[in-house]
Amino acid sequence: MSKKGLLFGLLLLLSSNIAHPQSGSISGIVTDSLSGYPVANLSVFIPFTTVGTTTNTKGEYVLDRLSPGDYTLMFRHVSYQSYSVPVTIESGKRIVLNLAVAVSTYDIGEVVKTGGKANPKMGYGLFMEYFLGDHNETSCVLQNPEALQYYYDGDEITIYAKEPLKILNRHLGYRITYFLDYFKFVEKSDPGISQTVGPYYAFSGSALYEDLATGALLNAGKWRNTRETEFTGSMKHFLACLYSNTLIENRYTIRKVYQDIDEIQQDEKIGLAMAKVRYAMMDSVFFWNPERGVVEFLNYFPDDEYRIGSENMTETPGTGIKTLTLAPNIVIFRDLETTPDLKDDWTFSMQLPDSVIEFDREGNYRVPTGEFIKTDLNNSARIRVLLPLDYLPAPRKQK
User: Fold this and answer.
1) How confident is the model at residue 17 (pLDDT cuts 50, 70, 90)?
2) What is the pLDDT, as a whole number, of residue 197?
């Protein structure tokens, strides 16, 4: 895949749960850290799932029927700082988690950084195309566009939101509350890169999904089929195929990522001169890393497939759960056009430093220790086609 390609960098720290038959719950009260008064209408949810609620007038919240496992619980309100709290749910037990939240002092303001006339219409068009994934808003609609604020700095556009974004996704059948941290679009060459990489963009935030298919008999069948189509090629789909040893049938291939020549030399135990020769044979994908605010390259050998063997995967007897260990960083390709060329494939990377992934036959997964970083490297990961992490295809539910 050429370094000149248009690729998307969306860095998500994902932590999903392995499904279990029994459940636990979380409840608590949210108060203002200064006044001690309860905070109403604060969202409490597991990011990018359908699991969530809001606090009542007494600041109380309850989340029931949670499968045992490790979660990250998000607390968000437009007037308060956001909080992420790791929790471990145990079967039949309720966790009481009270939280005092501080008023947010961050003010976006109403200014434009650069001289010249601001063009919100252009910024809104980019936002609809690259964030929403529906430029004309025919099947995915932002219901409160007035919440967006635009900053221009040369060829860079940054967009913030004054309040949670309300999105109606008619393509997949979800109502989404999206807490946008930022959206960034850059249309110029990075000074550290010799090639012109073209435009790149990134966004960051957290979302709560509401399923519209419940009781919607007219659209339920259409949404079920659309969701199953979009599920193919997702992280959960990849792990489900890995579990059943059907990666080849589903057109997945894997490449190991190398950061530099020294890493090649160390991994292959060759001299520096040979490592330089090998480095010249590499191809790369690039992405905008929102955590570091830079463009980064992931280098790989196009002809060297990384195979996951028995030494990488073990199964705990009687649990249906497998444990996966990998190279620190890999790129996963899924062939969309049934061609040998990787440049037209759907692409994402997995970084698993000093940790393992536990997953089941449905593709549900969790990282017992450390952090797992998944990075989407193409333009497919937009809100219009992003399913909640707790989505499960209907045919698999019936097993």
Assistant:
1) very low
2) 52
Cα 182 to Cα 197: distance, rounded to the nearest angstrom: 22
pLDDT of residue 216: 67
Q: Report DSSP letters for 259-292, one per residue.
A: -SHHHHHHHHT--HHHHHHHHHT-EEEEEEETTT
Helix (H, G, I), strand (E, B) or coil at 222: helix
Cβ atoms < 10 Å from Cβ of 355: 15
Rounded to whole angstroms, the Cα distance separating 370 from 53 reads 28
| DSSP per-residue codes, 224-237 | HHHHHHHHTTSHHH
3-state SS track over 199-211: CEEEEEEEEEEEE
Confidence of residue 109 (pLDDT cuts 50, 70, 90): very low
Token pair 């607390």: residue: 75
Enter the CATH code of domain 24-101. 2.60.40.1120
Q: Identify the CA nearest to 84 among candidates 73, 76, 95, 94.
A: 73
- When the pLDDT of each residue in the chain is averaged and rounded to a whole number, the result is 80
Of the pLDDT bands very low, low, confident and very high (cuts 50, 70, 90), residue 338 is: low
State the DSSP string of 119-176: -HHHHHHHHIIIIIS-TT-SSEEES-GGGEEEEEETTEEEEEESS-EEEEETTTTEEE
CB 358 within 8 A of CB 323: yes
Which value, in Å, is the radius of gyration of the alpha carbons in the chain?
22
By C-alpha distance, which of 394, 396, 49, 48 is closest to 225? 394
Helix axes 272-280, 261-268, angle to 10 degrees: 110
Cα 142 to Cα 136: distance, rounded to the nearest angstrom: 11
What pLDDT is stored for residue 15 in this prediction? Answer: 39
pLDDT, tens only, 174-191: 999 999 998 888 765 544
Give the model's pLDDT for residue 354: 63
d(CA 221, CA 210): 17
For the record, the structure tokens of 393 come out as 């295809």
**Tokens of residue 43, six digits:** 């969202």
Question: 105 exposed, middle or buried (CB, 10 Å; 0-12, 13-18, 19+)?
Answer: exposed
pLDDT greater than 70 at residue 389: yes
What's the rounded Cα separation, in Å, for the pair 299 and 376?
15
For the chain, report the end-to-end CA distance as a whole number of angstroms.
Answer: 39
What does the domain layout of the chain look like in residue ranges? 10-16+218-390, 24-101, 120-215
When pLDDT is cut at 50, 70 and 90, the band that residue 245 belongs to is very high
